[in-house]
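Usage

Read records sequentially. Each one opens with the input sequence:
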Amino acid sequence: MIYIGATADRITPRPEDFDPSLVRAVSQFIIREANLIFENNKFSMLRTINLTRGAGNDAFVLAIAGTPNTYHSEKNFSLGELCVLKLLRVLKDVSNNSMIIIDELEMALHPRAQINLLRFLEDQAQRKSLTVIFSTHSVTLLKTAKKRHIIYLEKQDDGEIKPIYGCFPTYAIGNIASDEETLPDIMMYVEDLFARDMTTAFFEQFANDRFDNPTERPTAKVVPVGGFKEVVAFLDRNRSVLPDHCIQKAVLDGDVSSETVAQWRQNNNHNQLAKFQALEEHISYLPFTPEVGMMSYITQNAQSFEQSLRLKCGDNQLRIGPLLLTYDPSLAGSQLRASAKKASSELIDYIAQRTQRSNETARDLLCSLFANSAWQMYRADFMRLFGRML
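and closes with the structure output:
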């Protein structure tokens, strides 16, 4: 086992100790990897000197280009540079199957250098079958590391430290980072506010069903963007903006798949199909159009849904029967969607007025109640939809 920590200890040759004839070349491995980690060529002139006052007492020095026999000693290196150079010196000769413990080494590194260092360690671990344990509080590293590689040490109420293996980055980040640094595990882009509330409500049902342990539960944010074409275009533009650990998906209304895309295929509209097919693995579809799915369920289960609504709102005088007459399930296509949207809007207005809630709160309540009531009916669809994202 090898321990490597962040230390500011520097070896600075005294003038009387420094003999240019003792300067030696540094391994190309150290030079190459240092330049890659720090994204420059600064270390191409890196050398070492073995000081006369101690056998094996090597110090790094940096030759000054164009100035023969002139060098910068370790005191001219930043803490981060010196720590990385010492790490590289150790890893150059480390035996296969070794365990390396690295303690807060990244604290003096720029975020880009932190990421490059992590990638380097991952590569070395694979090449030499190393076990690398990297102790860190770096939000950058947590955002970059693969979920299965994260072990979060959580202090319990009784003082015991409990390891949580493979937790989502946001769980660890949420305990160490400021609000500005946190990102959800999953970003879902949808068409409108109704789709946002509906997707959020069913994701809650999915997470409750899938994850018994709250530390394993991913965080998700659902963002309304606009029409389905705008959603897909936004996804395409935004994929490179967020870090890789943040899963990004477009979740479109069911009618886009069953009607629009189906019509494109029938008409051989290759131009439109190509845009969707290029992002196919990043696009998912709800099993229904939100308003249609909800209104169809409510009209078929009017009495039980009304009872649930009364219980949720604490008002036994709520009556939704007359409002359901607005919805005509015999229609199809755009006419059915228009009918469902009108009925949904009237139902939301009614709940908001009767319970003195805002329309937004009433819409959220209605979607949540629908998701809870209809979960068993749509469970397989949503377990598949959200499960594929993880």
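Summary fields computed downstream for this record:
- Residues 290-387 form one domain.
- The first helix runs from residue 28 to 38.
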